[in-house]
Amino acid sequence: MSELRKLKVTEMNRLTAEEFKEAEKLPLIVVLDEVRSLHNIGAVFRTSDAFLIQSIYLCGITATPPHPEIHKTALGAEYTVDWHYFKHTQEAVRQLHEDGYTVLAIEQCEGSTMLDKLNLEPGKKYAVVLGNEVKGVQQEVVNQCDGCIEIPQYGTKHSLNVSVTAGIVLWEFANKLIGFRS
What we know:
alpha/beta, 7 helices, rRNA_MeTrfase_TrmH, 7-stranded parallel sheet, methyltransferase activity, transferase, RNA methyltransferase, Alpha/beta_knot_MTases, Alpha/beta knot, about 35% helix, about 180 residues
């Protein structure tokens, strides 16, 4: 077996915080609807940084930076990724629609589109709404969305942790949206 050497951080050619702020972002906004765990919030910041997400909308009880427990998992991404706070998620969705975004709830709904069957359109702007760890996306918010996306699951559990869900969904969106740039 050949030897594999782990790369050092200095060999990974990552953007600096300043370069990240100036970089062209994907036309995608993440909306956190009543997410209570500070660690989940931080993890979503870190994943959003990894995939050049435009912004995060923090809604309701979702905590905002700066906060040491968010920082513990965000590792500084709370300073690179733009974020905005909305008292009510419905206000955030209304604003997104006014700004021309297609808003999709990540939720198990009648008529959901399975993530692996998702088709995105070049030139469109998207937002994904991720819900509370116990209750998911509020029904009132789902009602405002343009559709629902569901992650196919094959085991006995009916849901994934919100930060895991964010990772899977943002990876899929990033792959498709980056492909439009080529």
